[in-house]
Amino acid sequence: MKKLVVLGAGYGGMRILQRLLPNDLPKDWEIILIDQLPYHCLKTEYYALAAGTATDQHLRVPLPKDDRLTVKYATVTNISLADHIVTVEKGEQISFDKLVIGLGCTDNFHGVQGADLYAHSIQTMGATRKTYELLSNVRPEGTVSIVGGGLSGVELASELRESRPDLTIRLFDRGESILSVFPKKLSEYVQSWFIEHGVDVKNNANITKVEPGAIYNHNERIETDAVIWTAGVQPVEIVRALDVEKDRSGRVILTPQHFIPGHPDVFVVGDCASLPYAPSAQLAEGQAEQIVTILKLQWKDDTLPEKMPQIKLKGVLGSLGKKHGFGMMGDRPLTGRVPRLLKSGVLWMYKYHSG
Q1: Which among 154, 203, 265, 278 counts the fewest CB atoms within 10 Å?
Q2: What is the pLDDT of residues 224-249, one digit of tens each?
Q3: Is the pLDDT assigned to residue 4 strictly greater than 90?
Q4: b/e for 277-296, b at 16 or more Cβ within 10 A?
Q5: Which BP terms in the Gene Ontology apply to this protein (predicted)?
């Protein structure tokens, strides 16, 4: 049997499994999925787990089951493109005929002193569990500092406000306003929500140092009980170590067909791929759909298209606690209860009807 090895059960990896199994995988092929956990995780909801408003179980989706799918629980330590071999912990080697790399991302601390040691993360399930424990144990009327005013930072700050109304919550952002990539109407709405609910937004921030019990903004020391980092991501180290061309963010530059140039059997999906969009679950799924199209053409020895269709993104939805939200549907900004209800509906459909 020939082997399609999929590294990571993230949004991209899951979509590939769902589209190929049970009927669209050639009979002489099998799939080996390598992941650290026995389930797919709803990463877009990690902020709620960290804040204590969603349970660990709520964020799990079962992996597909099929006789030709083998799940190996392991950590990838090396990828040899030339030898077609993936190495996992303890030196075990797994050969592949085709490979999909979907190992996701990790925090980018941008060289800020002490951030990698003393700031906490919501980038992985394991890190989010630790952050939940930290935030749950912050002393009454303590202070939490969140670095980064993008979608993750905003959702974490608002959810934590509902979970721990006793806390002082500070949100540090480099921009003139939070959610700077969104239309001004949305940014102003979210900023007003924070003012109304007592979240202290620090615009034009420049975090220069993190140490136990303190964070430094423009070198000004500010005491804090916890620091949560949501200020940027980068591909995991194993991908950054690959000897292939990458963009300025360290993501792998691909052909239009989503494989590594010179390696038509090695695809990269999700946060590790260099694409003309901001990384998102929706983008990873759209890219995965196109990778499945290319795989089917390769298996039939058909000619590959020179270009792929533009991946259509339906929009972005964010939450402000359990009752309010914001988002973009096409070019239309949404605020209030409607986007929050829409997000809950999308999450329910994904969790219970995915694939």
Answers
A1: 278
A2: 999 999 999 999 999 999 999 999 99
A3: yes
A4: eebbbbbbbbbbbbbbbbbe
A5: aerobic electron transport chain
